[in-house]
């Protein structure tokens, strides 16, 4: 039996944190309720007291907590980001997840004992890039961008003395993360500094001629027939016209599900598996974490994976293996 | 308008114009001839040469690089070697390595991976490298950054804060489609029902990017291979004064499929104080018929917006 | 409401015990509901203060919660200091910032965190209308609260709440069983039609594919420039 992969699970609220712990998470990740984290949706995330209590709750049960401070501090106002790192350290977080070079530099100098993970928002997509963050800031783990094939992940693991964490379930980034300003172009709010892509404050649904039109800012993102499943109008999942054809040009409204690839990911030398979805509820967390707990344990024992259908929880109700298979490119 | 009546500020520092790298997959001959004309006629100080979007295009341009660089330098222009903006594998990295062995040119880093190869020597960073704050600016300066082209989405408050702090020379893109996103997936190939590996170089069909419209027919983006660009051309000709007052003196023009010599001249004239910004805006509109201009990012609103003189210039 | 709708009139109440309950309640006057709702709201505030704290950034916000299978709607006034909940008629005009509409069972499941809100939106079981940010904030806020409708509604009954909760639990189990039976009946009734529809859909998809392949084929021969191999 090999060592099971570490299961890193989302917690958008204290309730979801408890649900993730109960469902078998090895680690949960979460953020403060402000623009210092990349899931800054209204009503979500943790205030100081909740975060401190959440860490205590998880630690009592042997579960680690990672605090995402993974947006880019605004020029002239680094205070909230510095405080987020300071407080995470003070509350005993097992690591902070960072994207910004300046913030990593701050964390390294101010809290030399604090474990640093590199967020997917840093878009470190090559061994050399990861090596840079390792050398300069002592990054211990990198969350790999969702653009690499399994072969590329294996190559990175052979080259770099840094743990790798990969996404196995949830919404998929199509563009290089942290380097996309599409949402900002349309809404004026930068996902990189405000922490929310396609913010709900700029989302509108309109009924036109019996069809449902979803808009982000001034732009139509999709038009749905009566019975089509409706997705949240994330810009890059929209339907557009190019070359005279209507299509989901950037990406179909699908979710990543790499559950069938766990053995390959183990072979590729991956340390941890990440489930996306801090903006999803505890029902999602319980269900997905439970399914992956069983699958990870089965994979470690070298057994066949237990069947489970997570499709009802995925966006647009279809699944993809994403970039892990080169056919996606 | 009040602005036109104001006496123009004396430049504190000599303003510089940079011509960014050609982002599109022009035919190799068009690409070469474009740079030849820039060398001979364009009033720019610096010219970036290199493929930043897709390495598959580079073999077509590469045979012409030496003569293009030579022509630009004999015309007295500084040449900066641009590198890929999404580095994934050994081949991508080799392309940067090949460029960085030549130490006679500034290398523009567009992916952090390239920093590893440039350790210990001066470098520039392009607008796709995330320099959002003083902390990052300071770190990169300590590692040898001499020139930093800032992300296109930074609002004026951020630009001013960075300019107050910087030791490196800061640059802001003031003309051309805005680089909004880059992906490993090729949207151009996908639009043609092709896979990236067998793309048939369909991005070469669109010298100014492939138009992408919303379902209700609104022009939205331009697809350029693996890159998404704005449909609007960013245009900060009316903000040049304010940028210079902040202490930013280097301005980037991103090449479009228009008369870039005349575009450069328009900006040069405004910087020299010999033409009013609003008049130059009119010239620029005539040079790019059918194109909408935007300056929303600078003004802290939707990047697509045209604020101030741009709103009335529509 | 601002009149924008996400398929507002399309949502047909599902065949469920609630539908029959709704029919039975059609003649109960609205004032009857107001006191129990006020008490329930007080219990929610006491037990789940975080809900209104999480909604804090929105300021005072009015929501309409519209169970399609009941003869009335709920008006929720979310505010940090003085939140309230009351029943209103289906046709009463209210100036709400947003509404959520769906079968009562789904709304309760959502409230109690048994179903993921996003999943419901993806499948179009719930329909939202108005300010999306407000709906997302509400959904996130109740999600984080671990509300138990039976417990929180019955709490005001004091010593009686224990036995009452047992009655409610039994009623719920019965309702679930009835719902399952109804689902079987519904399936049996429409299965043949669904089978035909699926066959048709598959054929349409195949035709679509063929048409777009043909279009693409035509384009390929016409448009692409000849290129040298890299």
Task: Give the helix tally of chain C.
Answer: 8
Q: What's the architecture of the largest domain in chain A in CATH terms?
A: Alpha-Beta Barrel
Number of helices of chain A: 10
Question: Could you say what the CATH topology of the domain at 17-147 in chain C is called?
Answer: Nonspecific Lipid-transfer Protein, Chain A
Helix amount of chain A: 25-40%
Describe the model:
The complex is a heterotrimer of chains A (329), B (314) and C (230). Chain A is of the alpha/beta class and 329 residues long. Chain A has 2 domains: 6-172 and 254-328, TIM Barrel, CATH 3.20.20.70; 189-247, no CATH class. Chain A has helices at 14-23, 48-60, 79-90, 101-110, 127-137, 150-159, 182-187, 191-194, 262-267, 282-300, and strands at residues 6-10, 27-30, 64-69, 95-98, 116-118, 141-143, 163-170, 203-208, 211-216, 219-224, 240-242, 245-247, 255-257, 272-275, 319-320. In chain A, strand 6, helix 6 and strand 7 form a beta-alpha-beta unit. In chain A, helix 1 runs parallel beside helix 2, helix 1 (14-23) packs parallel to helix 10 (282-300) and helix 3 crosses helix 4. The mean pLDDT of chain A is 91. Chain B has one domain (14-178, 230-313): Aldolase class I (TIM Barrel). An 8-stranded parallel barrel of chain B has the order 1-2-3-4-5-6-7-11. In chain B, helix 2 runs parallel beside helix 3 (58-74) and helix 10 runs antiparallel to helix 11 (277-287). The two termini of chain B are 16 Å apart. The model of chain B is unreliable at 1-11 (pLDDT under 50). Chain C contains 8 helices and 5 strands; from the N terminus they run H-H-H-E-E-E-E-H-H-E-H-H-H. By secondary structure, chain C is an alpha+beta fold. The N and C termini of chain C lie far apart (59 Å). In chain C, strands 3-2-1-4-5 form a 5-stranded mixed sheet. Chains A and B meet through helix 4, helix 5, helix 7, strand 10 and strand 11 of A and helix 5, helix 6, helix 7, strand 7 and helix 8 of B. Strand 11 of chain A pairs antiparallel with strand 8 (210-213) of chain B, so a sheet runs across the interface.
């Amino acid at each position: 039996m090999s060592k099971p992969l570490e299961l890193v699970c989302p917690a958008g609220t204290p309730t979801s944190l408890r649900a993730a712990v109960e469902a078998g998470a090895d680690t949960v990740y979460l953020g403060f309720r402000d623009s210092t984290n990349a899931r800054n949706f209204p009503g979500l995330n943790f205030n100081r007291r909740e975060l401190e209590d959440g860490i205590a709750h998880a630690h009592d049960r042997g579960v680690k907590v990672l605090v995402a401070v993974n947006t880019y501090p605004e020029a002239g106002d680094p205070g909230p980001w510095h405080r987020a790192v300071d407080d995470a350290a003070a509350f005993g977080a097992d690591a902070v997840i960072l994207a910004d070079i300046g913030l990593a530099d701050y964390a390294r100098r101010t809290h030399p004992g604090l474990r640093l993970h590199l967020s997917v928002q840093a878009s470190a997509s090559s061994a050399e890039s990861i090596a840079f963050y390792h050398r300069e800031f002592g990054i211990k783990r990198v969350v790999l961008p969702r653009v690499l094939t399994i072969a590329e992940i294996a190559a990175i693991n052979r080259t770099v003395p840094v743990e790798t964490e990969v996404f196995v379930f949830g919404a998929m980034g199509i563009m290089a993360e942290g380097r996309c300003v599409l949402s900002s172009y349309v809404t004026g709010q930068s996902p990189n500094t405000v922490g929310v892509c396609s913010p709900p404050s700029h989302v509108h649904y309109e009924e036109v001629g019996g069809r449902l039109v979803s808009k982000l800012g001034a732009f139509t993102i999709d038009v749905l027939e009566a019975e089509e499943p409706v997705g949240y109008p994330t810009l890059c999942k929209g339907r557009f016209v190019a070359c005279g054809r209507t299509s989901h040009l950037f990406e179909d409204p699908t979710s990543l599900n790499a559950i069938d690839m766990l053995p390959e990911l183990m072979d590729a030398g991956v340390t941890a598996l990440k489930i996306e979805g801090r903006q999803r509820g505890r029902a999602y967390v319980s269900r997905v974490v439970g399914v992956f707990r069983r699958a990870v344990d089965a994979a470690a024992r070298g057994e066949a994976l237990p069947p489970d259908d997570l499709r009802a929880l995925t966006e647009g109700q279809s699944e993809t293996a994403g970039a892990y298979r080169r056919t996606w490119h | 308008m009040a602005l036109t009546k104001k006496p123009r500020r004396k430049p504190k520092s000599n303003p510089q114009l940079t011509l960014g790298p050609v982002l599109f997959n022009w035919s190799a001959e068009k690409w070469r001839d474009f740079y030849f004309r820039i060398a001979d006629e364009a009033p720019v100080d610096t010219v970036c040469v290199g493929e930043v979007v897709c390495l598959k295009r580079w073999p077509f341009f590469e045979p012409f690089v030496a003569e293009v660089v030579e022509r630009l330098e004999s015309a007295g222009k500084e040449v900066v070697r641009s590198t890929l903006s999404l580095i994934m594998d050994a081949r991508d990295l080799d392309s940067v390595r090949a460029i960085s062995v030549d130490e006679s040119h500034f290398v523009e880093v567009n992916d952090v991976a390239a920093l590893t190869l440039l350790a210990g020597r001066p470098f520039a960073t392009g607008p796709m490298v995330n320099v959002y704050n003083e902390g990052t600016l300071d770190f990169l300066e300590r590692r040898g950054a001499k020139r930093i082209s800032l992300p296109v989405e930074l609002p004026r408050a951020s630009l001013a804060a960075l300019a107050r702090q910087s030791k490196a020379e800061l640059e802001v893109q003031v003309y051309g489609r805005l680089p909004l996103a880059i992906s490993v997936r090729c949207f151009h190939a996908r639009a043609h029902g092709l896979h990236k590996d067998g793309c048939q170089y369909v991005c070469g069909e669109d010298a100014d990017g492939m138009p992408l419209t919303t379902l209700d027919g609104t022009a939205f983006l331009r697809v350029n291979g693996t890159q998404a660009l704005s449909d609007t051309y960013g245009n900060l000709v009316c903000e040049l004064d304010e940028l210079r007052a902040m202490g930013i003196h280097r301005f980037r023009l991103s090449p479009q499929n228009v008369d870039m010599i005349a575009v450069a001249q328009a900006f040069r004239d405004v910087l020299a104080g010999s033409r009013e910004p609003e008049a130059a805006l009119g010239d620029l509109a005539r040079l790019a018929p059918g194109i909408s201009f935007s300056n929303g990012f600078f003004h802290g609103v939707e990047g697509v917006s045209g604020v101030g003189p741009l709103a009335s210039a529509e | 409401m601002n009149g924008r709708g996400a398929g507002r009139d399309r949502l047909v109440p599902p065949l469920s015990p609630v539908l029959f309950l709704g029919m039975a309640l059609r003649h109960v006057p609205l004032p009857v509901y107001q006191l129990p709702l006020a008490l329930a709201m007080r219990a929610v505030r006491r037990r789940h203060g975080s809900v209104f704290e999480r909604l804090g950034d929105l300021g005072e916000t009015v929501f309409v919660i519209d169970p399609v299978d009941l003869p009335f709607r709920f008006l929720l006034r979310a505010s940090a200091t003085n939140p309230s909940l009351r029943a209103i008629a289906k046709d009463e005009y209210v100036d709400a910032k947003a509404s959520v509409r769906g079968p009562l069972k789904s709304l309760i499941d959502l409230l109690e965190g048994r179903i993921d809100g996003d999943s419901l939106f993806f499948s179009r079981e719930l329909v939202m209308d108005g300010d999306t940010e407000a709906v997302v904030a509400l959904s996130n806020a109740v999600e984080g609260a671990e509300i138990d409708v039976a417990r929180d509604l019955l709490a005001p009954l004091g010593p009686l709440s224990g036995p009452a909760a047992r009655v409610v639990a039994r009623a719920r189990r019965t309702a679930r069983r009835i719902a399952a039976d109804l689902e079987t009946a519904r399936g049996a009734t429409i299965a043949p039609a669904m089978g035909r529809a699926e066959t048709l859909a598959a054929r349409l998809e195949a035709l679509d594919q063929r048409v777009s392949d043909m279009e693409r084929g035509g384009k390929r021969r016409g448009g692409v420039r000849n290129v040298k191999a890299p």
